[in-house]
Write a structure and sequence with these properties.
about 25% helix, Alpha-Beta Plaits, alpha+beta
Length: about 240
């Protein structure tokens, strides 16, 4: 039995998220179905972290085990030849028995894209907030208050099953292009809806011209009433996972 690690990207639009659900198309279902056809047996995947419906991935990772003589490059070609074209396997490598796609991850980076002007061609791959004012300096200052180790429970959805809601944010940056505002955030872990609630709150601070240290108040009081909206999923991308 060998353990393999896949690196892949996907367009989240056609799928109802990562996790297998009854009577819906999910990324996990499509990929495990493909692997099972290749290896002639059920082949479960363990992913670095689940993504919701509509969320994309530039670099997602998952491991699986199989009895095979196939080389990694042959596995890549075989999977890409049969799975949904919204998913693309970039790399496949052998890993040791102790490796775990989720628990071996040291940090993850997410990216969020916001259109300055609405584009029908990007409506599924970036968000648009009409009439909302974006100030890059204010966004940057507010984001700096996210850095370090904090309890991010207030920014997350359904943390009842978690033993801890502490996260350490290594970086949180905004950049501006001719057509986008782009937010990138790197942390040791993320929780459900965390990035989308952070983006919505930062955009609220920018639009209303609020003090950047509102982030400190939110983290210290855990007051949900101070949050902005939860940003929609189509602007969110899993950018990278570091092992």
């Amino acid at each position: 039995m060998k353990k393999f690690l896949l690196r892949f990207s996907y367009d989240g639009h056609p799928f109802h998220g990562w996790q297998i659900q009854k009577d819906t198309l999910t990324i996990q279902h499509v990929m495990e179905d493909g692997l099972s056809k290749i290896f002639k047996t059920d082949t479960p995947l363990v992913v670095s972290g689940r993504t919701d419906a509509g969320v994309h991935a530039l670099n997602q990772y998952a491991h699986f085990e199989a009895r095979t003589r196939m080389k990694p490059e042959n596995i890549i070609a075989a999977i890409n030849s049969i799975i949904h074209k919204g998913i693309y396997i970039k790399d496949c490598s052998l890993v040791d028995d102790a490796f775990h796609a989720r628990f071996s991850a040291k940090k993850r980076t997410y990216m969020y894209k916001i259109m300055k002007e609405f584009s029908p061609f990007e409506r599924l791959y970036a968000s648009y907030f009409p009439h909302r004012r974006f100030s890059l300096p204010l966004l940057q200052r507010a984001s700096s208050h996210l850095l370090g180790t904090h309890d991010f429970n207030v920014f997350s959805h359904d943390t009842s099953q978690l033993s801890s809601t502490l996260c350490t944010v290594e970086s949180a940056d905004w950049t501006e292009t001719d057509i986008h505002f782009i937010f990138t955030i790197c942390a040791n872990r993320f929780m459900h809806n965390m990035v989308r609630r952070i983006v919505g709150t930062l955009s609220h601070i920018s639009h209303e011209g609020l003090e950047p240290d509102l982030i400190d108040k939110i983290l210290s009081t855990q007051d949900y009433n101070l949050l902005g909206m939860t940003a929609p999923p189509q602007g969110l991308y899993l950018f990278e996972v570091i092992y």
